[in-house]
Recover the amino acids of this structure.
């Protein structure tokens, strides 16, 4: 008689340091765990908009994953491009789990860091062998600025699959590539049994099946805990089932609650340290010109070594009052994991971008995503650009439609729908790893 064996794989993705449900998720995993259970995290667990993650430089997130008993994890772009290479080395050297990143290559040495593996073959107590392959988001231009190569190709993935397929009973891809890329892989690499995905924050209740491959993804911020069930007849995988569980039905894990509290207390102490003394109050208004956003836009432009720049006033969340300013104040006022960026636009493209920036669709936009962690974008602030009754002047002269301009701005404008001409620009230079709040601190120090 052929034995029936069932394996359970719990999975989380895109927590983004949102820990409202974390203790509940960990509690359920611990309660259900046995020798046929695994837990995987798909990356973007850390988000430096959270004060704890910022203060512990991501190491608090690793402690939480260790406590949760993660077996395998992929690296997300929020880890890969918002932490420097040195920060990542410090973070993952503390991990008690295996970090899988087949496409993460250190450009300085031409190979993966010692804490990253392309795949791992998990030999379970029942004799079954399951291969886990990890891939991170192929945000090549960002990663290159930090000394990484994260390029992705189907051919290289097929080579890995070929290498492990004869040694294993099932192949699982841990993907932080996003659902469209996962769908392409499912159509192209039939040997992969399951893709557990992330990055695009899709809620796939029951999963999505393409060409025999089951694609799973569990939303974001711990709104769901994914539960993948694999049923084997002997060594043959017969059934694949996916379910998204609501953490509100679970109790909280006491050890995780204590760890979260301790990490928050450590962060509060670290962020209370004085960063600068402000001699005068720095007003911030979102829907009209004010000193704070203008001073930050000027410093952003200077930081990029340019003469013209633009950014929305809403990136500063509140006025900074006269007196001592702590690192926590800086983080609270400017929490976004946003980097400075230089973009080349023609005069015609610059005009179209500025006209769009004046619309209520942009000014009143309560943006969620692209690194923005504020309330509303607010009015656009300019350096070296003036809008008057006669049109638009750049450095005191009317803008020339056929001239190419270099513009200091924010990387979040290069994504998606905000400013199509900026997103479509073929010449972008991302200045990493500094965040906008690093530029804010530089500006505040110069005002004293």
């Amino acid at each position: 008689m052929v034995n029936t064996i069932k394996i359970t794989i719990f999975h989380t993705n895109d927590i983004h340091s949102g820990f409202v449900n974390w203790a509940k998720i960990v509690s359920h995993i611990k309660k259900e765990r046995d020798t046929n259970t695994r837990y995987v995290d798909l990356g973007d667990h850390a988000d430096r908009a959270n004060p704890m993650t910022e203060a512990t430089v991501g190491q608090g997130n690793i402690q939480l994953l260790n406590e949760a008993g993660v077996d395998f994890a992929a690296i997300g772009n929020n880890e890969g491009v918002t932490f420097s290479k040195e920060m990542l080395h410090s973070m993952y050297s503390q991990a008690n789990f295996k970090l899988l990143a087949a496409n993460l290559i250190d450009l300085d040495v031409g190979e993966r860091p010692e804490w990253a593996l392309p795949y791992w073959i998990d030999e379970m107590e029942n004799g079954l062998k399951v291969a886990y392959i990890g891939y991170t988001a192929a945000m090549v231009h960002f990663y290159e600025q930090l000394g990484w190569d994260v390029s992705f190709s189907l051919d290289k993935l097929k080579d890995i699959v070929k290498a492990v397929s004869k040694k294993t009973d099932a192949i699982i891809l841990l993907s932080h590539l996003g659902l469209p890329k996962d769908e392409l892989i499912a159509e192209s690499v039939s040997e992969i049994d399951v893709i557990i995905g992330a990055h695009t924050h899709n809620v796939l209740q029951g999963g999505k099946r393409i060409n025999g491959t089951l694609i799973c993804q569990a939303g974001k911020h711990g709104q769901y805990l994914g539960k993948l069930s694999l049923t084997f007849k002997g060594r043959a995988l017969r059934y694949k089932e996916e379910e998204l569980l609501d953490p509100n039905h679970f109790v909280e894990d006491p050890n995780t609650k204590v760890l979260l509290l301790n990490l928050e207390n450590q962060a509060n102490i670290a962020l209370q340290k004085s960063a600068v003394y402000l001699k005068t109050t720095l007003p911030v208004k979102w829907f009209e010109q004010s000193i704070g956003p203008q001073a930050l836009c000027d410093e952003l432009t200077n930081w990029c070594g340019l003469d013209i720049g633009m950014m929305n006033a809403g990136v500063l969340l509140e006025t900074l009052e006269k007196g001592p300013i702590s690192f926590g104040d800086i983080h609270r006022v400017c929490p976004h994991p946003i980097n400075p960026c230089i973009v080349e636009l023609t005069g015609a493209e610059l005009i179209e971008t500025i006209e769009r920036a004046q619309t209520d669709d942009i000014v009143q936009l309560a943006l969620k995503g692209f690194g923005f962690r504020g309330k509303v974008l607010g009015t656009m602030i300019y350096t070296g650009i003036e809008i008057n009754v006669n049109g638009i002047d750049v450095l005191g002269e009317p803008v020339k439609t056929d001239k190419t301009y270099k513009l200091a701005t924010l990387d979040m404008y290069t994504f998606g729908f905000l400013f199509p001409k900026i997103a479509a620009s073929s010449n972008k230079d991302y200045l990493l790893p500094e965040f906008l709040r690093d530029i804010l601190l530089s500006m505040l120090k110069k005002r004293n």
